[in-house]
Amino acid sequence: MTILQMEYFVSVAECGSFSKAAESHFISQQGISRQITALEQELGMTLIDRSNRRKIALTREGEILFKSWKQIVSAYRESVTEAMIAAGKLRKKLRVGIFEAGPIADYVMPLINGYRAHEPETEVECVFGSEEFIMNGLENGTLDIVFALCGKYRDYQIQCYPIYYDRVCIALSKRHPLAVREELGVQDLEGIPLYVLNSSYSYDANSNVRELLRQYGCSETGIVEVKDLNNLEMLLHMAEGVTFAPRLLLRNSSSDIRFYPTEDKKNGDSIILHVIWKEEKSKKEAFRIIGIQE
Question: Does 100 lie in the same domain as 61?
Answer without folding.
Answer: no
